[in-house]
Amino acid sequence: MTGIKALYGQEVAEAQVQLQKTKKEFEGHLTLVVFPFLKISRKNPEQTAVEIGAYLKENEPAVAAFNVIKGFLNLTVSDDCWIELFNSIHTQPEYGITPATEDSPLVMIEYSSPNTNKPLHLGHVRNNLLGNALANIVAANGNRVVKTNIVNDRGIHICKSMLAWQKYGQGETPESAGKKGDHLVGDYYVAFDKHYKAEVAALMEQGLSKEEAEAQSPLMQEARQMLVKWEANDPEVRQLWSKMNQWVYQGFDETYRMMGVGFDKIYYESDTYLEGKDKVQEGLEKGFFYRKEDGSVWADLTAEGLDHKLLLRGDGTSVYMTQDIGTAKLRFQDYPIDKMIYVVGNEQNYHFQVLSILLDKLGFEWGKGLVHFSYGMVELPEGKMKSREGTVVDADDLMEEMINTARETSDEMGKLKDVSADEAANIARIVGLGALKYFILKVDARKNMTFNPKESIDFNGNTGPFIQYTYARICSILRKAAEGGISIPEVIPAGLALTDKEQGLIQMLADFSAVVRQAGTDYSPSGIANYCYELVKEYNQFYHDYSILREENEAVKTFRLALSANIGKVVRLGMGLLGIEVPERM
């Protein structure tokens, strides 16, 4: 710092210069802590701060004024310096976004992970929205990203839906039923449970205990037999499995499209579990794992402070850990992965702790550093959901309800009376889904949350529609300016006197770059969501207090339009990282 050397004749290390934002209760923009310089100034904190402040005001054009509070030097940044900062943002269409290069690290992110025995539900909605937002944020921090999905398409739960369709379906198809395929298959999963419970109840009436009745249930025995046939590649069972899974995949694709999420590569458990068994066998041969007398294969993780983990059952069938090892093997063959992020609920924390150790033992370079993006459960105000009983909140129904509610709310407020029916429908879609996405993403992912559809659609407060409405307001201002022949220059000239609000908004815009970086470091979409809210809240206060189009000073008017345009730009970029569209009219 040249001022210190000029005043006291000594160089200081950059680490000693502690600059921070000035607290709101004090005048100034930046605060310098002077205590590290007292040894070389040989003066008290106030005298040292005054001397440094006077030097900076005299010799540094960026410093317009200063004041001293004890050992803290509060600096007021000049208006021209704020304009220079603003222009650096104004000239970057993708401000805050760092594009990837060919040499950038490759990050693979797994999310969604549905089962093919039921449609996607509210829990999947949170998973997909978090995974998609995380992928966007990681990419915005200069990484190459591969979005991937592992579909759980095998196992007893799949056989339950298949068996129920065989017994009670009478050849029903999605076309004949007029239903999405995932919904139709989900209905048969519920039907299985209903008939199974009836069987158990009847057996218990004959004097059997609950455990005995469950073990002797003919329906459950048939489902287990079907799974054995599937494992043995029975052509009839495999044909039914393939047909019903295709129904489900077509349904899933519709849901993903509506939700605005997608994948670069989809893996299927039916392909990966055999690869996992091979990898476990390899670990057994190398002495990483051991076999018990019953033939089951285990990993001894006591040296890592954990316990013994089952990898293959005595009958040779695989467990989830086996499948995840197999999936990892295929992914590593397909992509040169530098980092792997799994978006999975917090009930699987221990599973991923173990998986990381096992992958590292098996030689996967990214195994030790894998990230489990662990998130909390999401519920409705009414409480928990259960797939088997058909009480799950279906993702398709939820999205449809959100869009309908957005349309009703907009109609009540008279917001869409001047637009065409098609445009009104599209705006309702954008607002409804934006409300859903924002409400879920603004919450710290690690926390359990309650999703309240009515609260989420509010046009005031920390909601998606409030942010979207502010963006639409900015678009309206810019349209009116263009209609009036006012254009925004590529560079705003120096010499303007800025208000505190304008300086504050420029500072908030400049913060976006750091917010994106922090969200990438912390894997935190909520950081971006809440930044967008704070930015539009501050802008709305500015809009309320100051004229824009009616401002008589042309230079000030042009700057305020440019400021509005850049706030709109950053809101669009920030919401875009969350997977949320912003409408130009509302």
Q: Roughly what percent helix? A: 40-55%
Mean pLDDT: 93
Largest sheet: 5 strands, parallel
Uncertain residue segments: 384-390
Strand order of the largest sheet: 7-6-5-11-12
**Second rung of CATH, namely the architecture of the domain at 395-577:** Orthogonal Bundle
For this structure, what is the CATH homologous superfamily of the domain at 395-577? Answer: Isoleucyl-tRNA Synthetase, Domain 1
Give the CA-CA distance, first to last residue.
Answer: 51 Å
Shape: globular
Strand segment count: 14
* Oligomeric state, counting identical vs distinct chains: single chain
Structural write-up:
There is one protein chain. With 586 residues, the chain is an alpha/beta fold. Among the domains are: 2-77, Arginyl tRNA synthetase N-terminal domain (Gyrase A, domain 2), CATH 3.30.1360; 154-262, no CATH class; 395-577, Isoleucyl-tRNA Synthetase, Domain 1, CATH 1.10.730.10. Helices cover 55% and strands 11% of the residues. It is built from 21 helices and 14 strands. The protein has helices spanning 2-8, 38-41, 45-59, 79-90, 122-140, 156-168, 174-177, 181-205, 210-216, 218-231, 235-259, 269-285, 320-334, 349-361, 395-413, 421-441, 453-456, 464-483, 500-522, 525-545, 554-577, and strands at 18-21, 30-33, 63-69, 72-77, 106-110, 144-151, 265-268, 289-291, 297-300, 308-312, 339-345, 371-375, 378-379, 449-450. It has a 5-stranded parallel sheet, sandwiched between helices. Helix 5 packs across helix 19. It is globular and about 95 Å long. Mean pLDDT is 93; it is low at 384-390.
